[in-house]
Structures are given as structure tokens and as C-alpha cells.
């Protein structure tokens, strides 16, 4: 079956760094997405990885290891506005997104 | 680019009535659109995939007669919740595929059935 696993909740301190992990099992693979979702809003795109390695985009970076079925989202210099849910989604052989349940990130001052 | 406009953002309706939600791709042609439902503190649940000019493909457990999806043009897909009940209250989100790997989301519709 197809499955995405990510932690339910994480807590970090403002100004610190946090890494949100995601493991996936899909029928075929066409990339791994990370989305940010604030309460009551639709998800917004953060990153896309289809090749192994680290993609850096400002304070956010995303890493992919296809052989391990593993990805992480790294958030640096955390700000209070980064408090949100972070959704991991893998694209399968039909380009359908398989969603994780999301990781709620709580930022404390 | 790749903007999807979803309306309404919030709607309250009475039990037994029908509600239509629209999603429009503003600056690209969306041959494929997805409709999701999201319960509080839960991830997105795919309801159906619609392709322009053909019938939507519904996920298992989703009633096609209750959730009518129409994708009549390359820029518009609609979801109609028919004979709404309080248990249909949820957050509905559309998403359009704009290239092999690109997906963009509408802003979502909060439906409350009273």
C-alpha cells in the first residue's frame, strides 16, 4: 500500500532550527512535496524534490533520499509566523499526491 | 502564475439544500483538477479527480450522486454538494495540476450545514 509518515507535532524555539522528517512508500515515485498550512487556510507550496539531495530556498531547505524513501524539511531562524502544519506529499506513478497527516509545528518565544 | 480562484470562501446552508463551489484557473489551462476534503486537524482527503470534458473519477467511499463534479472547461471545475447534511460540514479545497509535477491550490471553502 501507499503510505506517508511524519510526526504529529513538534515544538521549537523562535530563532532555532527544526527538522521535520517524512518517510514514504508509494507505487512509483514522481517527486516529494512540502506544503505549509495555517489553520483554516489552504496549503501553500514550499518545495519539490525529485532528485536526491538538498534544495535550499531561503530559510527553508528540503532533502530527499529516494533509496531510503525519506525526506526532511529544515526550517532555520524560526519565526513565530512559522507556526503551522507542514504537509508532506509524494507523487506516485500516476502523478497523484499521497498526503501525510501533517506535522503541527509550535514555535515558542 | 498558476493561480486558482475558489469561491465562495465560506458558506452556511440549511440541511437539504445544495451548495456549489467553483474553482477557476486564472492564468493557465487546468486539464486536471482535484477536489479534497479536510476535517479539523486532519490531512487532505482526495474526493475526486476531474478531467476536462470527461466524468470525474471518485475515490472509494465518496458518493458521486451527492458530490457532483463538473469540469466543463479548461478553466472551471465545480463541486456541488447536494442535499447537504450537517456531516457534510467541512473544509473543501480544489487543486489544479499545471505541469507534470506542479499543483496549485484554491483558497478553500468552509461549508457549514445547519
Overview of this protein structure:
The complex is a heterodimer of chains A (109) and B (114). With 109 residues, chain A is mainly beta. Helix content of chain A is 0%, strand content 57%. Chain A has no helices and eleven strands. In chain A, strands 2, 4, 5, 9, 10 and 11 form a six-stranded mixed sheet that branches. A five-stranded antiparallel sheet of chain A has the order 1-3-8-7-6, with no helix packed on it. Chain B is built from no helices and eleven strands. In chain B, a hairpin with a 5-residue loop joins strand 5 (44-51) and strand 6. Chain B is globular, with a radius of gyration of 13 Å.
Report strand % of chain B: over 45%
SSE class of chain A: mainly beta
The gross shape of chain B turns out to be globular
Low-confidence parts of chain B: none
Bulk shape of chain A: globular
Elements of chain A, N to C (H/E): EEEEEEEEEEE
Mean pLDDT of chain B equals 90
Helix and strand succession of chain B? Answer: EEEEEEEEEEE
Number of strands of chain B: 11
> What's the helix count of chain B?
0
How many angstroms does the end-to-end distance of chain A come to? 40 Å
Tell me, rounded to a whole number, the average pLDDT of chain A: 94
Tally of DSSP β-strands of chain A: 11
What would you say about this model in short?
Chain A has 109 residues and is an all-beta fold.
Keywords:
heterodimer, A: 109 residues, mainly beta, 5-stranded antiparallel beta sheet, globular, B: 114 residues, 7-stranded mixed beta sheet, 4-stranded antiparallel beta sheet, 11 strands, 54% strand
Architecture blueprint of SSEs:
The complex is a heterodimer of chains A (109) and B (114).
Chain A: E1 3-5, E2 9-13, E3 18-25, E4 32-37, E5 44-49, E6 53-57, E7 60-65, E8 70-75, E9 84-91, E10 97-99, E11 103-108
Parallel strand pairs in A: 2-11
Antiparallel strand pairs in A: 1-3, 3-8, 4-5, 4-9, 6-7, 7-8, 9-10, 9-11
Chain B: E1 4-7, E2 10-13, E3 19-25, E4 32-38, E5 44-51, E6 57-58, E7 67-73, E8 76-81, E9 90-97, E10 103-105, E11 109-113
Parallel strand pairs in B: 2-11
Antiparallel strand pairs in B: 1-3, 3-8, 4-5, 4-9, 5-6, 7-8, 9-10, 9-11
